[in-house]
Every structure is written in C-alpha cells, then in structure tokens.
Amino acid sequence: MSTADGDNYTVSIEKYAERHFIKSFSKKYKGAWNITQIAIVEQFRRFDVLVGATNNTEKILIKDSQYIVKHDFKIAGTKESTKTSGDRAIVYVDVSLRECRVLLVYSKNDISPPNETQKWQALIRENYSDIWSKFS
Question: Is 96 helix (H, G, I), strand (E, B) or coil?
C-alpha cells in the first residue's frame, strides 16, 4: 500500500511487516485493523505535522535527513490509550525524498520488554540491512 500527494510523504508498508505482524493484527481485529492501518498511513503522509503535533512519535535513530521513528498507536474502537495499548510502528523516514517506509508493526505481545528497543533493532538489522547501514 502506498500513496503520494503534493507535499505529503509517500508511505509504503514493507512486505516483511505485512507478513510477520500485520497479518496477525488483521486476523485479531478484522475491520478495526483496516481503519487503524488507514489512519497510520494518513498520519505518516503528513509526517512533518505528526512529529510536531504529538508525543506518540519519537525519532530513535537520526542521520542527516533520515530517521527511524517509533510510533505508538491504538486499534480503532478500543478503549485503551495510545501509550498503554503497547502497539507500535517502526518507520524509516527520508525527509529529502519525502518517503516513509513502515518496517515493523507490532504489539507488546510480539516484542516485549525487557530490551524492546534492542529486539526491534535486531529485526531491522536482519531484515532491512540497506536501511540499517545508513545509521551504523
């Protein structure tokens, strides 16, 4: 899934994320996941606004105009807050190319503490070496 529009960012969801994590979200939450996925894509289409408007998106790795960010989200229709839901997206952002690539989408049941950051970084290193090499 991708989209492009004027000054907005192009957003794509990587195949690895679809196969390993999104598939389980889709089975578990059915139609609510579709709404949630559309919302995530729309938020990242406006990345410049997203980062300035919320505490839910944190730049974890930074190299020039490229970032890997962790974005907290919640499933549409659930009563949990965004922070307490434990649902996260790891997204590569290239500001100069105006693109966002969703690398991982997971819940706290998929990648849990302790060392959550180390665990998802290992997945990025193993499955997206082209992106990881930009930050190491």
Answer: coil
DSSP string, 29-86: HTHHHHHHHHHHHHHHHTHHHHHHH-SSEEEEEEETTEEEEEEEE--TT-SS-HHHH-
Domain ranges of the chain: 6-132
pLDDT tens across 66-80, in order?
A: 999 999 999 998 888
The pTM score is 0.90
Pick from 77, 81, 14, 79: which is nearest to 44 by CA? 14
Q: 6-132, which class in CATH?
A: alpha beta
Which amino acid, one-letter code, is at 91? Answer: V
Give the C-alpha separation, 32 to 136, whole Å.
Answer: 37
